């Protein structure tokens, strides 16, 4: 990519005290999500109560960083002007192996993307902040533990 | 067929415009409200219920009071319906329910918007702003592109299948002089030749934002009998709200309209294949595709074959969005959803002029907000 993603003037997250652990971990290149201790379910995005059972027994755990591409789009006309210098770029829906789905920035692999592709966490500096982006697992690539 | 729950007795619609300059939303609301109340043959003093939409940038709070004051109304029931593109359909059953509850007798449901060169952005601080926007996903185009890509992968639906929907909307718009694309047809090839905005979505598969306004007057079935226009009855309604952000959607290939439509059919004692008019919310081609499948008109994934088997024009066997839909008419913001209600009323009254459908007994109207998130379905019937 010719333009450094980190120099983009894109809108950053609107962080609250509750969501700060997610973004603090992201800055360190980790993906951390909440788990409900009553149902054993992982949840995304962070909340004060579990959306499945309304339990308050939520704990942060690092996710594996592995997921599956549920859908994607190559964005030619961004909704925010800050993204124009890198258009077209790809966003996708990543179904984490832990269960929940998150939207993320998808880095290019060596092959054209397909729904169902396996992805792994690829922390990337975008707009002055490290975000939990993802990239395709290359065929035959050794899965390195995170 | 079930007992009707209420009656639509007045409609108002403004010809959409690309831009307005220095015009308040309130002014547009006043113009279109006047048309609907005139159409009903009522005195403004007869309006004792008021349902309105949110107004980004102009009136953040106290919207019903601001509009009541501006219009000189003193409603005994007033509220904001905030269901995005489902707001218009959502207002109709709420009006009937409020009348049934004895809170009021005649409700004005109005949605309208101005459109400045630079529309105000809503200052969100919610999860979609925190967890989608920073990754490059701002606005509805990307969300619907994700839905469309998922449908293509799941069922092998093609770009041409989706383009059929846009081309049919443009074709129907050629019989609506008020449509923004009147005089500007676009065939399947033109849709496919238009630029990709967010893959796999082409420019001509996306509504054009316009300024405009739509309003309906709802009253009791009893009261409707004495008014000047043939009443259109609300026979059934359904609603469901499941999520806001596309990442949180329970499914990418089926939406909450599925259960909303099922409830509307059940309440009205009707079936999808009995509808004489399909007035389906069409912000993007994928929305129509999913709605046809969720309505049970065809099997999941088969909308393309279904489209090829049917004529969607006013003369056809399955008239769909005879006003051109929002894809042909233009999308006056939240009022865009109400164009589907207004056109259904026109058709069921037999007032649709050169685009009048033959048999006009039953219509399915759908509304959809956010990313296949907020869904309202209505079954309307000629009295
Ligand atoms: Zn739980």
Name the poorly predicted regions of chain A.
none
- Major sheet summary line of chain B: 9 strands, mixed
Number of strands of chain B: 11
Percent of residues in β-strands of chain B:
15-25%
Small ligands present: zinc ion
Report the principal-axis shape of chain A.
Answer: globular
Q: What would the average pLDDT of chain A be, to the nearest integer? A: 94
Q: What's the CATH H-level superfamily name of the largest domain in chain B? A: Thiolase/Chalcone synthase
Strand order of the largest sheet of chain A: 6-5-4-7-10
Number of helices of chain B: 13
Query: Helical amount among residues of chain B, as a percent range?
Result: 25-40%
Oligomer: heterodimer
Distance between the termini of chain A: 25 Å
Structural class computed from helices and strand pairing of chain B: alpha/beta
Strand content of chain A: 25-35%
Largest sheet of chain A: 5 strands, antiparallel
Q: Which structural class should the secondary elements of chain A be placed in?
A: mainly beta
Q: Total strand count of chain A, please?
A: 10
Radius of gyration from the alpha-carbon trace of chain A, in angstroms: 16 Å
Helix content of chain A: under 10%
Describe this structure in words.
The complex is a heterodimer of chains A (146) and B (383). Chain A has one helix at residues 20-27, and strands spanning 32-36, 42-43, 58-62, 66-75, 89-96, 101-105, 118-121, 124-126, 129-131, 134-136. With 146 residues, chain A is mainly beta. Chain A has one domain (5-9, 17-136). In chain A, the strands form three sheets. Chain A has a five-stranded antiparallel beta sheet, with no helix packed on it. In chain A, strands 2-1-3 form a three-stranded antiparallel beta sheet. In chain A, strands 8-9 form a two-stranded antiparallel ribbon. In chain A, a hairpin with a 4-residue loop joins β5 and β6 (101-105). Chain A starts with 19 loop residues before the first helix and ends in a 10-residue tail after the last strand. The model of chain A has no long low-confidence stretch (mean pLDDT 94). Chain B has 383 residues and is of the alpha/beta class. The longest helix of chain B is centred in the N-terminal third of the chain and has 16 residues, at 25-40. Chain B is globular, with a radius of gyration of 19 Å. The site of zinc ion (ZN) has 8 residues of chain A, from loops.
